[in-house]
Amino acid sequence: MPSDEIRATVTAAGYDSVRFVELNDGINSPAGPKNHGMALADARYVGLLDSDDFYEPGALAHWHTVLTENDADAVVAPVKHLSGELIRTPRARIGRTHNLHGVKDRLAYATAPRGLWRTDFLRSIGYQYTEGLRTGEDLAPGLKLYFSGARTEFPLAGPKYVLGDDAEDRVTAESLPLKQDFEAISRLDQAWLEQLSDSARQSIAIKLARVNLLGAVLRRGSSWPWQEEDLCALEDLARQLARLHPNYERPLSISESQLLAATSQAASNPGAFRSAIESYRAATPAERLLTRDIWSTVHPESTARHLARLLAAGWRPATTGN
Fold first, then answer.
1. pLDDT score at 234
2. Of 103, 99, 98, 110, which is closest to residue 158 (Cα–Cα)?
3. Which of 49, 169, 247, 318 is the most exposed place for a label (fewest CB within 10 A)?
4. Got the DSSP string for 80-121?
5. Which helix (H) or strand (E) holds 162?
6. Measuring CA to CA, which residue among 65, 162, 56, 42 is closest to residue 116?
């Protein structure tokens, strides 16, 4: 889109400090424009606003204050849907807003980085969106940011980053071929992952299993016209996660573990895979909360512990009346 088409609207609103930059790289990916804009940033702090999204009034000013007062490297923005529903990521410890820890505060769940960051810190860790990806370009830089030892703040009570997820053509809402959907994971820097701690690799693997692998399965469901190439992509990702951390699945609930086991053999037994999706949908509350190893039920990554944190924070499950 030519910048003149946007400039007229913006300048008409009275914003005379906006800088317009065009990039025509011919690649169907948001990574190129994001990297180009980040490279041109010359301010002390930098942030990124995705298309269709917006900040609540005062958000940037508040995050700037949080960064400067705490001498921090990054603010993890609290995020909510356009409907007003708060997105419960990262799965931070109860009341934890200062100096978050990558593992203890489960920052892997917030690897679509949103907020405000210290520009020189990003450059020191080689922060780059993964080029050429249609979706998931922010996975690698998000992991690198949050598992780099960054001094991270999470001002949950302040103004929010709002996802404009009512847009009908939002790319992240599309169902892409799974090989393409998982490409961001397959292109993660293996050497960098291997130098992380055992607990960090487990934390990352759990997030990728729940959100990316099982999330992709459940969004499509048992009635999806599953193609062999998609089933093979599921198996490939399951093997990749097992290599990342052999025991990563221990904190998963019984229902998650059963679906994961079927997903790991989706191509070789597609019938059992479809049945496992239905079984997951029909799982009892106990199967959704408890783990196969009862001691893992109290693991910080378990569903039971996450539910306890939500309840302690004042969340209540929705109820329906007659």
1. 97
2. 98
3. 318
4. EETTSPEE--S-PPTT--SS--TTTTTGGGG-S--EEEEHHH
5. strand 161-163
6. 65
Instruction: Give the type of residue at 322.
Output: N
Position 73: which residue type?
Answer: D
Which residues on adjacent β-strands are paired with residue 152? 74
> For the chain, first and last CA: distance in Å?
50
User: Quick one: which of 277, 251, 252 has its CA closest to 263?
Assistant: 277
Q: Which helix (H) or strand (E) holds 166?
A: none
Task: Give SS3 for 191.
Answer: helix
- Residues of 75-88 as b/e, b for ≥16 C-beta within 10 angstroms? bbbbbeeeeeeebb
What pLDDT does residue 79 have?
A: 95
Q: What are phi and psi of 80, to 5 degrees?
A: -140, 160
At 316 the pLDDT is 62
Report angle CA 313, 314, 317 to the nearest 5 degrees.
120
| 10-residue stretch averages of pLDDT, the chain, 322 residues long | 85 78 91 95 94 94 97 96 90 92 95 94 96 94 95 96 71 74 95 96 97 96 96 97 96 97 96 97 95 90 90 64 38
What pLDDT, on a 0 to 100 scale, did the predictor assign at position 319? Answer: 45
Handedness of CA 173, 178, 183, 184 (dihedral sign): positive
pLDDT attached to residue 156: 93
Token pair, residue 197, equals 């701690």
DSSP H or E segment with residue 152: strand 152-153
DSSP labels for 17-35? Answer: S----------S-SHHHHH
The model scores a pTM over 0.85: yes
**Domains within the chain, CATH numbers bracketed:** 26-173 (3.90.550.10), 175-322 (no CATH)
95 φψ region: left (φ > 0), alpha (ψ -120 to 50), beta (else): left
129 with 34: CB under 8 angstroms? Answer: yes
